[in-house]
Known about the structure:
By secondary structure, the protein is an alpha+beta fold. The protein has 2 domains: about 10-110, Immunoglobulin-like (Sandwich); about 120-215, no CATH class. It has 5 helices and 7 strands. The strands form 2 sheets. A 4-stranded mixed sheet has the order 1-7-6-3, with no helix packed on it. Strands 2-5-4 form a 3-stranded antiparallel sheet, with no helix packed on it. A hairpin with a 5-residue loop joins strand 6 and strand 7. Helix 2 crosses helix 3 (about 170-190). The two termini are about 55 Å apart.
Amino acid sequence: MADNISGGIRRLEADGTQQFTMAATPVVPSTVSFLLLNTEGSCLSLVSISAANSGQTVLQSLTAGGSNTGNFHIEFVQPNTPGFYTSVWYAYDSASRPGIIREEFEVIRSEPRSFFSYGNIADVYRTARQVFGRGNITAREMQDYMEPADDLINGYMGQQFTVPISPVPPEIREWNKSITLWHIYTDRFAVNQEEAPPGLKERYDAVVLRMSEVLSGNGVLHVQSGTLRRATWDFESTTEDFKPVFDSRDWEKQRFDPDLVDTDAGNDDGTEDA
């Protein structure tokens, strides 16, 4: 299993200062430039790291004697929008022929954020890092997987019960964890045809089966306190004040209530049903 959930590329904090470097030896280029591109290929303006330092100028490291080393660097504030970006170095020789060095990296926000979930955020985060390796998965990214897991649970349970279910039964917390881990695998690892960790798919399938059993009445969901309420729906009848069309008499004796016929005729707007 891969150690880095991001696919091995660098991950940089949004709004954080970062230095990008390029080594061009043994031939020192005559001109060097740097570009930052978003996923659409648009060139972004580099943000200054301070009012006193533009942070946008490519600088070359010098030896103690003042000679050029061929090592270039630039420092700037990372974009504030999480996503994938590409840095591009252009190193031109004396004949204006460019050497091009590209690097894709990801801008993230790793600080935790509060959100509701059936699952225990700390427990799911810890388990995910154990299952998939202690790579660059962050607690903040858990929301992108735990909330869809909640949606799947509510999609099943909402057919019979009032959702969200509160207080959250311990079993549903485990459901969320199993679904979340499976979603992480299918989203981040299955595309690379990496084998799923042992038992991951089996636990996911067991949760789906268990929810189906509870819905069908073949399983019982235990709650610590409170009541697991079945959902109710309100229906409005337009014929409750009229004699039923069908009653216990033989079928040939069934009749429409004349008052219902008159009411329908009065409500007719002259158009045919589609």
